[in-house]
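Protein record
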Amino acid sequence: MAVKEDYIAGGFEFATEAEAKAARNDENKIQAIDKKLNYKNFEAVSMVYNKAIENHVFETVIGELYLKKLQEHLIDIKEAGSDFVLKPVPIRSGLSYTKRTEETAKVKVRIRPQKEVKEKLKFSIILNFFLALIIVVLFIITLTGENANIINYRTVITNQYAQWEQELQEREKTVKEKEKELLEK
């Protein structure tokens, strides 16, 4: 079987193209660090080493090998008698990382028991029924209410104008009767 070029990075063959891309990113990070880092300065090298471990800068075996190289370099240039303790290089690639991610994925996925799902469904149906009942009651109140609303505004306004007209006619009639009485006197 032929090896795909897209799966190769840093002399390693990766299982997927995404892993190879991550390895190429690690190579680019290493090159950027190499350009700026003074390997003779113990403090600078130890700071880069610790920050790279704390911030999980590297994702692949290429980065882990670089961290191991920095660790060995720090051991070589460490001053005699200093009590500097090196952190171990964390392994995030390979089988151990795959098993950990699978285990955490299994922990995150929780299947609810069928009984719990049925109880929640029953509660949901009852709640929806009561909400629908409340909506029906609100519509009935709206339709039978005397206040104008979007459903019965035309009828209410027409009735109100009819009532005003009737009142005006009654007043006119009384005014005309009073005028008649005054004219007769």
Remarks:
- DSSP finds six helices and two strands in the chain.
- The radius of gyration is 42 Å.
- The chain has a mean pLDDT of 81.
- Helices lie at 17-36, 42-54, 61-77, 94-108, 114-144, 153-184.
